[in-house]
Amino acid sequence: MASTGNITSQSTITSSDSDATRRKWWILVVVSLAQLMVVLDATIVNIALPSAQQDLGFSNDARQWIITAYALAFGSLLLLGGRFADLFGRRTALVLGLVGFALASALAGIAPNVGMLIAGRALQGAAGALLAPAALSALTTTFTRPAERNRAFAVYGAVAGAGGAIGLLLGGLLTEYLDWRWTLFVNLFIAAVALAGTILFLPNRRPEHRPMLDLPGTALACTGLFALVFGFSRAESKGWSSPQTWVSLIAGVILLAAFTSWQQRARHPLLPTRVVTDRNRAASFLAMFITGGGMFGVFLFLTYYMQLTLHYSPVKTGLAFLPMIGTLMIAAQLATVVLLPRLGPRPLVPPGMALSATGMVWLTGLDLHSSYPSAVMPPLLVLGFGIGLIFAPAMAMATYGVRSDDAGVASAMVNTSQQIGGSIGTALLSSLAASAAATYAHGRPPGPPTAVQAQLHSYATAYWWSAGFFAAGLIASWLLYRPGAPQSEPDAPPVVHM
Questions:
Q1: Which residues contact 352 (CB under 8 A, 6 or more apart)?
Q2: pTM score
Q3: Where are the domains of the chain?
Q4: Which residue among 134, 207, 228, 416 is least crowded, i.e. fewest CB within 10 A of its CB?
Q5: Could you tell me which residue, 1 or 233, shows the higher pLDDT?
Q6: Longest CA pairwise span in the chain (Å)
Q7: Is residue 278 a contact partner of residue 405, using CB atoms and an 8 Å limit?
Q8: Minimal CA–CA distance to 394: which of 165, 153, 162, 164?
Q9: pLDDT tens digit string along 306-351?
Q10: Cα dihedral sign for 247, 248, 253, 254?
């Protein structure tokens, strides 16, 4: 009888472990969907903008605000969103973020005028600021066993890295075969699936002794990040000579410096210094910042090249990025599942930077008659593999060993680094490309041939600067990352019992 009881008990334990494992992988599906929605919305609307502009009849300045509104709200509220997840639970933050994102997408999708469209995009960004850090921190606190954690971060990192390219593809398909409004309505379906999974599978763990929210730190961080993103957005649209640009940038730097000083004295800091002082974590934040800036050299200018120079349709442009997505996913799986546990991040992220820089330099050779199979696809394959070596390991190491009550704000720093890097990269590369085009055209006979060559020259300039970003990232990540495989840390998040 005792033997029978033992067998029954072991069977029950095995069944319970199996259920817990299945629940974990469903959580991975949920958070990956949430991250995909946030990342692809940074690019999916871009391809739809000409159709939306024709339909609603708004100006080019208003068109810029449709992009900027999302970036401003998202970038400025990320740290607050991350701390909200730490204080009130990941499930609460995910549910609120998913519902908010769906409602904001619906509002923007039915917009009868550009004002409502901009408002909907800003609300999308605010909901995304709650959603993105909650998703990553849920992954951090759910997958604590090294092997499972590496597989989970490989998937998540691939989704995060490929999301921008997927947005271009999906935006082209929806705009060409349905309507520009479907680039917003599609979020309702993604959010519905992710919301159901969140409610079914994700436990809502809250700290037993919840600290107070750092209100002065929150105000300084949000206004500082807002001013910084706004300043770089103004630089992109109005130029570096605009007073708005410099006033905003200077104000942003001052506010963020004040925030840094306050965090060292605050009783309950919004961003505890222990989160950013670890070398591997700091290197990962920097890697995400640099990659966020450098990637726009691909998504922005290569999109222009394929549509304006090679005359690709939006759908064909999106499909052209598929090989890059494929190699990115392969590299993310290989790096995080196989290599990171054995070698650590140092032999992965710097070579990823080197490959990305190589791909960018390769793209500088594109001309008016370049063919996709021989001239465009090969550098895209190299870029995809390089970015895959950066994204997944950097995301994994950015949250590795962080305390469970800091997981949300550490995750927010990952997204903030990428977002601010993207804002800076877009502004700098757009400005440098425009200056290069003007310099090339100066003194040459006006006309279509000169305009086309000036355009090609501006793209090449952007690729060279992007390569420079990645080269700087190679040096910085090599110097900052600790050699060797990651070791267990005493403040690692506890195993979550489902």
A1: 331, 335, 385, 386, 387, 388, 389, 390, 393
A2: 0.81
A3: 21-200+270-480
A4: 207
A5: 233
A6: 98
A7: no
A8: 153
A9: 888 888 887 888 888 889 888 988 898 898 888 888 888 999 999 9
A10: positive
Q: For residue 364, give Cα distances in angstroms to 49, 123, 195, 376, 458.
A: 27, 38, 43, 10, 10
User: Where is pLDDT greater, at 219 or 448?
Assistant: 219
Rounded CA separation 67/69 (Å): 6
> What CA–CA distance (Å, rounded) separates 283 from 481?
6
DSSP state of 348: T
% residues pLDDT > 90 (the chain): 22
CA distance 151 to 87: 27
Please give the Cα distance from 382 to 387 (Å, whole number). 9
Per-residue pLDDT at 123: 92
Residue-wise pLDDT tens digits, 88-136:
888 888 899 999 999 999 999 999 998 899 999 999 989 988 888 888 8
Residue with tokens 């006309």: 447
- DSSP per-residue codes, 283-319: HHHHHHHHHHHHHHHHHTHHHHIIIIIS---HHHHHH
User: 3-state DSSP call for residue 112?
Assistant: coil
| Total Cβ atoms within 10 A of residue 479 | 11
Long-range contacts of residues 301-307, Cβ cutoff 8 Å, at least 24 apart: 301/429, 301/433, 301/458, 301/459, 301/462, 301/463, 302/363, 302/376, 302/380, 302/459, 303/46, 303/47, 303/168, 304/455, 304/459, 305/366, 305/456, 305/459, 306/376
The CA distances from residue 493 to 137, 142, 205, 313, 403, in Å, are 10, 9, 12, 47, 5
Burial (0-12, 13-18, 19+ Cβ within 10 Å), 490: exposed
Residue-wise pLDDT for 236-262, tens only, equals 777 778 888 889 889 989 998 998 888
Element (H, E) at 374: none
Q: Would you state the structure tokens that stand for residue 134, as one six-digit string? A: 């909650």
**CB-count exposure of residue 128 (10 Å: 0-12, 13-18, 19+):** buried
Residue 196: C-alpha distances to residues 30, 86, 261 (Å): 9, 22, 42
Q: List, in order, residues 6 or more apart from 442 with CB less than 8 Å away.
A: none
Superfamily of domain covering 21-200+270-480: MFS general substrate transporter like domains (1.20.1250.20)
Residue 403's nearest CA partner among 291, 253, 269 is: 269
Task: Answer for the pair 155, 330: CB distance below 8 angstroms, yes or no.
Answer: no
